[in-house]
Amino acid sequence: MIPRPVARYLPILKWGVEYTREALTNDLVAAAIVTIMLIPQSLAYALLAGLPPEAGIYASIVPIILYAVFGTSSSLAVGPVAVVSLMTAAAIGDVAQSGTAGYATAALTLAMLSGGFLLLLGVFRLGFLANFLSHPVIAGFITASGLIIAASQLKHILGIPAEGHNLFELLRSLALHITELNPITLIIGAAATAFLFWVRKGLKPLLIAAGLNRRLADVAAKAGPVLAVAVTTLIVGGLRLDAQGVDIVGTVPQGLPPFTMPDFSSDLLLKLIGPAILISIIGFVESISVAQTLAAKKRQRIDPDQELIGLGAANVGAAFTGGYPVTGGFARSVVNFDAGAETPAAGAFTAVGLAIAAMALTPLIYYLPTATLAATIIVAVLSLVDLGILKRAWDYSKADFAAVSATILVTLGFGVELGVTTGVALSVLIHLFKTSRPHMAVVGRVPGTEHYRNVLRHNVITDPHILTVRVDESLYFANARYLEDRLYDMVAQRDDLRHVILMCPAVNEIDMSALESLEAINERLAALGVQFHLSEVKGPVMDRLESTHFLEHLTGEVFLSQHQAMRELSEHGAEARPAEALSNQHA
Amino acid sequence: MIPRPVARYLPILKWGVEYTREALTNDLVAAAIVTIMLIPQSLAYALLAGLPPEAGIYASIVPIILYAVFGTSSSLAVGPVAVVSLMTAAAIGDVAQSGTAGYATAALTLAMLSGGFLLLLGVFRLGFLANFLSHPVIAGFITASGLIIAASQLKHILGIPAEGHNLFELLRSLALHITELNPITLIIGAAATAFLFWVRKGLKPLLIAAGLNRRLADVAAKAGPVLAVAVTTLIVGGLRLDAQGVDIVGTVPQGLPPFTMPDFSSDLLLKLIGPAILISIIGFVESISVAQTLAAKKRQRIDPDQELIGLGAANVGAAFTGGYPVTGGFARSVVNFDAGAETPAAGAFTAVGLAIAAMALTPLIYYLPTATLAATIIVAVLSLVDLGILKRAWDYSKADFAAVSATILVTLGFGVELGVTTGVALSVLIHLFKTSRPHMAVVGRVPGTEHYRNVLRHNVITDPHILTVRVDESLYFANARYLEDRLYDMVAQRDDLRHVILMCPAVNEIDMSALESLEAINERLAALGVQFHLSEVKGPVMDRLESTHFLEHLTGEVFLSQHQAMRELSEHGAEARPAEALSNQHA
């Protein structure tokens, strides 16, 4: 029997002991397919991060194995991904020059910090923090990142130098150098891009028409980039186009991932901790979304806190084996799932495949043009761009539209980090703003029922001595004074008022500020000779009110139901005025 | 007829034309009383701000008149107040040395920035922003400020130098210099402090016993500081104690407030804009709280946005007439109210009184010991200190306790600005955290009724094929994934499930992130062969859902009431299983 805490932190002990021969076969097949897909992708994302191509391969070996030990998803494929690569480039570009040893070390340090932060979140079970990234912010951020990444790769397609961390810097830099473009590079890059787009859209139907089954056709189409890599490498190598100015990958060291050491100088750590936190959270959100989507299809469950530990371990692994920050990638995980991966072992086998590639295949890609890798990236990231989110958000709610459009614009204009930060801050502000002016309705009884509805929407019965106001929000500091103001306004418009009932079925909390306001309302209504009552107060809210002196000071009562409140108060009112006088305001 | 926009921005046009002889008498009496109280108070607060004493008088003349023109409260007395004086000292202490011309100019600049910011808020009707200062944050901040202010004045009572912007710096500085204490200063300071405390507690009952009416006794007790000022000035002047090392006010220039010019250098503006914003908001909150409390007693209304304009104008006025940031003060406004002020004209008459004092009386206070002024401040601010808020917050809610204690500790330890910022940020985070894990209850029907209640709290009837979950919170990005997770967990625990109903009577909003989650839930339940329904969805939420494709994809229905949902779905269920089989889980 494995002790519980050990089993919790080592999910491998659970699925490992149940591992079957059939699962092994399925995992091996999936691993072979994912390996083929990952070789060009890893090289390409390393290029995007400004690192040597082998860093991408290294980042896909040990991290995958560590995730297989600590992670809970059977389908997630961990490694370099587009958005995190872009964020890595932005973060370490600020502290070192691309191509230097310091740059690669900064990437290791970033991976270590990110891994450490993820582990911390996991151990303290703080995975819910990722929930503060709202859907509009994530969608806006991914779309804008996709555009920036695509723009950043245009220089490889055009064969010109260009720099910049936001869309405008990149486009201006491209425009400045456009006269230097290399026509051969452009032909290779444009052809590869066109081919890869066609593979995505056109190859699958063709393969299906040719008799291949749908799933296999799907997987085969994913091997398109490998074909593009092979063909363009052969052409460039055969014609020695590198002598014509076509940029090639060149010598990639052969061998297993090296043991590397991050830089622990406090100066660098301080500079990178902010970006590391952001990369961790973004990476976690991307990873957990994919993992949960795929798990749902198999009716499996993902443990978000254990996922943090799996991803944290993967990043720490990347830091010590020549990699850079990694996370669970969308495209590769879907391929892994479609190819039939059954357990995290599939990931481990992928790592073995990539290790073999790192040892044996790197000389073969000497002539691989960077334009082909850029084409792979462009095609991959443009599929993430979803400008339709703007329209959908606009139609659904202007607040969500504000969040998504601000995130897109700030990300495009000022880079990834500021974009996400702005999006999150704006989402929180918008939420506070919305809840700071809650919907409040004067309600009356629907004739013949015990239901109480908005007098403006329904034909209801009210009592001229009684004002019932339903407030549709928890009462807390941001809306406490608004409640006071609105209530005083409503009371000021009525003469002959004897009772005010605050109907609270939607009040899930009353914080201390709101309690102060309720006390102020009670006091001020008392000065006007009006009793203040509450109705339909929820259990937990009532428990808390009972711990204070509020109920002693309350001039009125707390009624379990609104109907009971009206029955009792109208009867009292009836002493002065016959019950028949109940007026129907709308009749 | 006055045009509406003019009338809005110039409330004086409204009360001015209705001004009566009786109101004039009342306003004059109130003004005389407040003037007497304000002379020592203005000097003292200028001392607290590190400014020459006349700055306090100047800050009480033109600003009061401008507030009388633009403000809406008939009782508010505008001028220097303790907390704003402390914040002024902290803000300008960072950019200039106390006692230099640059220091006074920085104070003018701060007043101008603060006035400009308040005017902006007023014109754009952003007064509601002050609501984000929760009650615990304000209470904690005022208490901590009171302690810091009292500690900062101890040096004047002891006759030693001491510096510092937080409690610990101040206490350490006092301890370092304690050997230098001046015994005569200490005797004067301690005697004045004791006298002023006694005036607050003991004088009023004495006057009432002597036959004075209660209101007059109250007002007379407020003149205690004037008596202390007169007596100690006479003693120090008569015995020439200044030669014995007793610090005195010395020469105060005679005359009306000068025309002064703030510094418009962008460097200074940039340094002061942050503190100016904070001072504006804190000042506004203090002022509006007093104004609303007093207005409520007379059943009058305060317009918060016009108040911003009144206070903004007052601060701009202070900037150009040798003052420093001002706001509506608690103590003086209460005195003004008690003394019978009927319109803002009382403030204008106070300004005239102070102008006369500035022209004629300043030579009389040459020998006024600063220890007496310090005693005035200490007695005033200690009445603001309310450490009981800690206990009350602890009893009511741990979240509010966290906010109030963090605000107090950070203010004491790191100063006013960081204290308030921490308090606000923490309040927002706590609110988000609380709403990120909403209360969710499985509900069943209370036998013999149409009410549905928590199965854990009530003895209710449920159907084994139907799971009804009530969620007690608006659904938005911070809790959307939590909802998914909890719902999947609940579903996973049940076999034989055919329907899941999400009961939404407390859902006031569904944002785009939550909509995504509902779609994901719908899809995942469909994969399990379970229909997903909603019940008791509010009107505005339903309107919004209808603008999307969600309802088309929804496998189940949206029911107006939970009871209707159960009737329809149980009938469907009855085809497979007789209605008698409805099980009572608790029976």
Automatic annotation (TrEMBL), chains A, B:
Residues 456-569 form the STAS domain. Keywords: Membrane, Transmembrane, Transmembrane helix. It is a multi-pass membrane protein. Signal peptide: none annotated. It comes from the Bacteria. GO terms for cellular component: membrane. GO terms for biological process: transmembrane transport. The keyword Transmembrane applies. It is found in: Membrane. InterPro entries: SLC26A/SulP_dom, SLC26A/SulP_fam, STAS_dom, STAS_dom_sf. CDD domains: STAS_SulP_like_sulfate_transporter. The chain crosses the membrane at residues 28-48, 55-83, 103-124, 136-154, 174-199, 219-239, 272-296, 308-326, 346-366, 373-390, 402-430. The keyword Transmembrane helix applies. This is SulP family sulfate permease.
